[in-house]
Amino acid sequence: MSEVSGPPQSEDEQGRLTSTLHALDHASRLAETVDDEAEFSTPTGGPEDMRALQVCAEAMRDAASLASEAAAPPTSPGHAALIEAGGGLKWPFDLQKQLLATGRSTGQTLAQLEHCAKALGELRKSHRSATLSSVASGGLSADEAIARVDALRRLEALAYHAWRSAAHLVGHA
Prior knowledge:
The chain is mainly α. 73% of the residues lie in helices and 0% in strands. It is elongated and about 65 Å long. 28% of the residues are buried.
C-alpha cells in the first residue's frame, strides 16, 4: 500500500483502495487491542465469561478463514482452477467460488463473523451489569470486576475489528 501513488485510474480501483485502507485500519485496531496491555487477560469465572471466550474464538476462526482465502496467491491451485473456469479473477479474488468449494460461502462466513461481534456486544452489556453488581454483594473485589469487564470489552473489540476488516477485505462492507 505504501507504494501506491497518484489517484486511482478508475472508480472501481478507487473503491478497492478505499476498502483495503479500511481493512488495514481495522486490522491495525485489532492489533492495538491485543497489544493494549502487556497483560492481556481473558475473562475467567462464570458462564458468560466462558461464552465470551468461545464466541470470540469462533469470530477469530471465521476472520482467519476469510483472510487466508483473500491472501491466497494467484498462482495457487485454487486460483488456477478459477482462472480457467471463470476466464480470470475479479477482485477480491472471487472469494465466493473459493469458499463454496470448501462448503461455506463468503456471505455465510461473514454473516457468522458479524453475528459473533454483535453477540459479544450484547453479552458485554449484561455481563458488565452482573459483574459490577457482584461487587456490591461481596462476590468479587472491585479490581476483579473491573478486570473481567475490561477483558470482555477487549474480546468484543477483537471480534468487531476482525469482522469489519474482513468485510472490507472481501468487498462486502
